[in-house]
Structure formats: structure tokens, C-alpha cells
Design goal:
By secondary structure, this protein is an alpha+beta fold. The protein is 62% helix and 19% strand. The chain contains 10 helices and 6 strands.
């Protein structure tokens, strides 16, 4: 297929309503973020510049969600106008097939799917890291987690070490209120260490003001109550800790980061199910761009018979998006429950809506 005048014309018709949809849906999502700015400044006493940065770094994640919706609305409005003014009928009468007429729109769907995938995997994780850093360093000053930080790492001579901390200070790169428990090959505790904090410097963790209790095989206990400093291996550096704990939601991570978290061995069974399911879904979701354009074309042809208004297109696009995400949520629960087939459940919404779109598109071509 060559790039022709028809292709340029169809893309031009799509461009304006797509930009309109992108702006409209982005403003809807941004409204919530604007309210958060007010809360940060008034309740958290955050600097205005920090609140504005939080708003700016939160936009990439919103745009990734908005692009498929904007393409859906843009396609509906573009096809409505072309059908309402009988331009599609004129093109078909001149010998151009319906499939060739809509081919540029479908091509846009494929291209924008990969663009959205790139934004999701490359731009959004970086923006989320910046957002977390600003919230922790500038606004909250201390990163306190909803649950204790726990790291499990193997010991060189066998056995394992479990490290537990209650909080993390990003500006000093220190863990607070640290407990280390070392187990032997038979999973029996052999040493417990309590420390006020663990500082990270020169790729090493140093315990400050620690107490050590060793449990010997003969049943005796050796206590060293006051040790000013001692170096330990925890198993993760501060960057890995922050990504795993503060970005506890895999939705805020790239697929590569999710894979690293699963391989780390630090996740519980429910977390593994959640992470693996999200890993599969993050590959399938961007292709909603193509699916939405595919299903919008026949709906755009039909809706003009009752009304060609923008409000109808906007309402219809919201209804399609709502149904799509309901189906996606149901499939997400199914993927977590049936982890072996999580990859299939991740693609079920796209497969289902593609089948519906192809069926309606075929009937529209024969009409």
C-alpha cells in the first residue's frame, strides 16, 4: 500500500477530533491531580513548586490511559462527519473499497499502540520515580511504608538472613529500627541483631548502635549488647528497596521492573500473582488503541443515523470504555486466580472487542 491522498485526507480528518479527545480526557484526569495540589499545599504544607512538580510528573501516567480513549472518540467523530456528509458513500461509488477507506485509521491504531507501549515502559516509570522522590524527600521527608520493609537474602555459607525495618530515610539512605535474623541450613535461628539504623555508603550497609545475640547449637546464648558500628550484607541496595516498597503497586512499574521484583524472591504468594498478572496486562493494554479504532468505525457509521452531534460521540465513547474496563477488571481477577493462563486472560478483552469490531465492520462493508 502506498501513502496516497486518501490516506492524508483520512489522517487529517482524524487529527482534530483526536486532539480534542486527548485534551478533554486529560483535563478530566488532571482535575483530580489539581485537587491533590491544593491538599499538598494546605494540609501537608508542601512548597508550591513541589506540588506543581508532583502534578507534572503525574501527567505521563494519565496520558497513557487517555490516548486509547482519545482515539476512540476521534474515530467516532471523524467517521460520523464523513458518513453524515456522504463522503464515504462517494468514495465507495468511485470504486474504492470500504476496507481501503478505513485502512489509514487502522494503521494509526497499530502505530499508536506501540507509541503507548513505549510511553508506558520508558517514560511513565521514570516519571513515577521522580514523583516518589519528590514526595519522600521534599514533602514527607521520611518514607514510612504501610507494612514493615522485609528483605530475605541467602548467606554465603548456607542458610538465609531476614532483614526487617520500619522506615527508610531517602535523604540519608538509611533504614530505621532494623532487625536481622540469621537462619542456618535447617531454618533454625542462629543470630539476631537489633540496630537503631543501617546506613548505606560505598555499596555497603553499616549498622549503628547494634546489639547481637548468638544462639549456639549447645543451647547457650552469647550477647554483645553495644556495638557502635558493624558492616552487614542486606541483599538489596536503597534504589531496589525504594522501587519495591514505595512503588509497591506494580501499576507504577515497567514490565522489566516487575520481572526483577518477581525474580528477587522478596514477594509473597499473593504479591506474585498480582505482579505476574500486571506484567501480562501491561503488554496487552496499549493495543486497546487499535481495538478502540476498530470498534469505533462501525459505531460511527451507525450513530449518524440518529444524531451527528459531538455529545453523542462523547457519550458513546464513554460507554464503550466503561464496558471494556469492566471486562478487563473481570479478566484481571481471573488471571490472578489462574496464574498459569494469566497471559491469555490479559488478552481476552482485546480479543473479544476485536471480534465484535470485525463483525460489525464486515456488516458495514457489505451495507
Amino acid at each position: 500500500m502506498r501513502f496516497t491522498i486518501l490516506d492524508r485526507y483520512m489522517l487529517t480528518e482524524l487529527a482534530s477530533p483526536f486532539v480534542f479527545g486527548l485534551s478533554a480526557f486529560t483535563l478530566i484526569f488532571a482535575a483530580t491531580e489539581i485537587l491533590n495540589i491544593g491538599k499538598l499545599v494546605s494540609n501537608e504544607h508542601a512548597p508550591l513548586w513541589a506540588a506543581l512538580l508532583v502534578f507534572g510528573w503525574s501527567l505521563p501516567a494519565d496520558i497513557v490511559l487517555v490516548i486509547p480513549m482519545a482515539l476512540l472518540l476521534g474515530t467516532l467523530l471523524a467517521v460520523q462527519r464523513l458518513s453524515g456528509e456522504s463522503e464515504i458513500t462517494a468514495l465507495k461509488a468511485s470504486g474504492i473499497t470500504f476496507a481501503r477507506i478505513v485502512a489509514p485509521l487502522l494503521a494509526v491504531g497499530i502505530v499508536m499502540s506501540f507509541v503507548t507501549l513505549y510511553l508506558q515502559e520508558g517514560v511513565v516509570p521514570y516519571a513515577n520515580d521522580q514523583l516518589t522522590e519528590i514526595e519522600n524527600n521534599v514533602i514527607n521527608h521520611v518514607s514510612a511504608f504501610s507494612r514493615d520493609l522485609t528483605v530475605s537474602a541467602p548467606l554465603p555459607g548456607g542458610g538465609r538472613q531476614v532483614t526487617i525495618a520500619t522506615a527508610y530515610e531517602p535523604h540519608t539512605r538509611a533504614l530505621l529500627h532494623v532487625t536481622l535474623i540469621q537462619y542456618d541450613n535447617h531454618n533454625d535461628p542462629r543470630q539476631v541483631v537489633f540496630a537503631d539504623r543501617a546506613d548505606f555508603a560505598a555499596d555497603k550497609w553499616t549498622l549503628q548502635n547494634s546489639s547481637v545475640y548468638r544462639f549456639n547449637p549447645d543451647g547457650t546464648t552469647l550477647a554483645e549488647p553495644r556495638i557502635a558500628q558493624q558492616e552487614v550484607q542486606i541483599g538489596e541496595n536503597p534504589t531496589e528497596l525504594m522501587k519495591r516498597m514505595s512503588n509497591d503497586d506494580p501499576e507504577n512499574m515497567s514490565r522489566a521492573e516487575i520481572a526483577d521484583a518477581v525474580r528477587s524472591g522478596q514477594l509473597t504468594e499473593p504479591e506474585i500473582r498480582k505482579y505476574v498478572t500486571t506484567y501480562q496486562e501491561k503488554l496487552a493494554r496499549p493495543f486497546a488503541c487499535f481495538v478502540f479504532i476498530l470498534i469505533a468505525i462501525p459505531f460511527g457509521l451507525r450513530s449518524i443515523r440518529t444524531s451527528g452531534s459531538t455529545s453523542l460521540g462523547f457519550g458513546l465513547s464513554l460507554a464503550i470504555v466503561f464496558v471494556y474496563y469492566v471486562v478487563m477488571t473481570i479478566c484481571s481477577f481471573a488471571g490472578e486466580a489462574l496464574l498459569a493462563s494469566a497471559w491469555l486472560w490479559a488478552w481476552v478483552p482485546n480479543i473479544l472487542f476485536t471480534a465484535i469490531g470485525l463483525g460489525r465492520l464486515r456488516r458495514a462493508a457489505l451495507a
